[in-house]
Amino acid sequence: MKKKIISVVLCAAMTAGLSAGTATVAFAEGTAEGKTFAIITKSAGNPYNEKEAEGFQEVIEAEGGTVIVKHPETATADAQISVIQSLISQDVDAIAIAGNDINSLQASLEDAMAEGIKVSSLDASVNPDSRLTHVNQAGVQEIGQALMDAVYDIAGGEGDWAILSATSQATNQNAWIDSMKAIMEEDEKYSKLNLVEVAYGDDEPQKSTDQTLALLEKYPDLKVVCAPTTVGIAAAAKVLQDGDTDVKLTGLGLPSEMSEYIGDDDAHSCPYMFLWNPVDVGRLSAYTSIALANEEITGAEGDTFTAGDMGDYEVVAAGDGGTEIILGAPFKFDPSNIEEWKEIY
Ligand code: RAM
Q1: What pLDDT is stored for residue 252 in this prediction?
Q2: Mean pLDDT of each 10-residue bin along the chain, 345 residues long
Q3: Which pTM was predicted?
């Protein structure tokens, strides 16, 4: 793509009759040329994962590299381990993985790194020994705070609320849940909120639907469900909107899947929610893999690199003792902007 643009500019300059004199035109080499970059998402059939992979693929291809996209059948560590092993035998240059488990992938990812493959995680981190760095969509604390404040606001400051998560092993989900619990404990403001249950829909639409129905049945005084998963929130939104209930919803959702449920009135189940751009998570992950593969960065704290048109990023210390690169802050979607964003992701 870059090359194409450069040659178009060059042709335009020549047709315009500009005399180049002794000027030289530098042809930028694709920074991923000659290398193979793999991305392993959590599982197939999750539109959020597809968006991440789309961003990753776009950057690697634009930079002249070869890309391998793997969506495992199920959101389990076992499914990812066999993919990692096959990528090691294909001798890829880098693997970016959204971990289905924090520790269980360590042996396979260490094998990969021992072969010289540059391993990083994105979306859901693997432990620091299993990666060189992690591409995080937003700070854990920031996401926890945004969600906790939304629950507080929507519940009117008090009452029963529940969390509908993805899988119980997902590092990102667990980090956000722990952060919400810590905020509730530390600040008196939230003391009248009662977290009744953390339910797991495993990022499967049917299971998430069933878990939402079970929450409604078990807790008659439930006021708010917080689903920090795009699959879970979409399933819960439908259950709550179609059902005979006043229970409201917030969490992390894809605008394209949630637009019909977002609204301030009784006809809508979700007043507002948050997310970031999953395509950009994939794009930043691709630039990170390229910088690692080209040995421009090692993934150590303080490393800096340019992620194409996304700008400059710095590797910073992560809460788990490893390092991370943070995309940005979570973004709020409400009735005022959902129509615009639903077209984008
Ligand atoms: C789901 C997945 C993913 C998470 C988003 C918000 O699609 O659990 O890992 O980041 O939700």
Answers
A1: 98
A2: 38 36 49 98 97 98 98 97 98 98 98 98 98 98 98 98 98 98 97 98 98 98 98 98 97 98 97 98 98 98 97 97 97 98 96
A3: 0.90
Do 294 and 172 sit in the same domain of this protein?
Answer: no
At residue 81, the pLDDT reads 98
For 165-192, the DSSP string reads ES-TT-HHHHHHHHHHHHHHHH-GGGTT
Total structural domains within the chain: 2
- Report CA(70)–ligand 1 centroid distance (Å): 16
Closest CA to 124 of 91, 165, 162: 165
Is the same domain home to 238 and 307?
Answer: no
In a domain, 332, yes or no: no
Contact criterion met (CB below 8 Å) for 52 and 98: yes
* Minimal-distance CA residue to ligand 1 atom 4: 229
CATH of residue 292's domain is 3.40.50.2300
- Of all protein residues, the one whose alpha carbon is nearest to atom 2 of ligand 1 is 229
Q: 19 in a domain, yes or no?
A: no
Give the range of the structural domain holding residue 217, as residue numbers without chain letter.
140-274
> Which atom of ligand 1 lies at the shortest distance from residue 229's CA?
11
CA distance 198 to 203: 14
Q: Are residues 121 and 76 in the same domain?
A: yes
203/152 same-domain check: yes
Report the nearest atom of ligand 1 relative to the CA of 252.
6
> Residues lining ligand 1, judged by CB closer than 6 Å?
42, 46, 48, 98, 123-124, 166, 170, 172, 203, 229-231, 252
Ligand 1 atom closest to Cα of 42? 9
Q: What phi and psi values does residue 274 have, to the nearest 5 degrees?
A: -130, 160
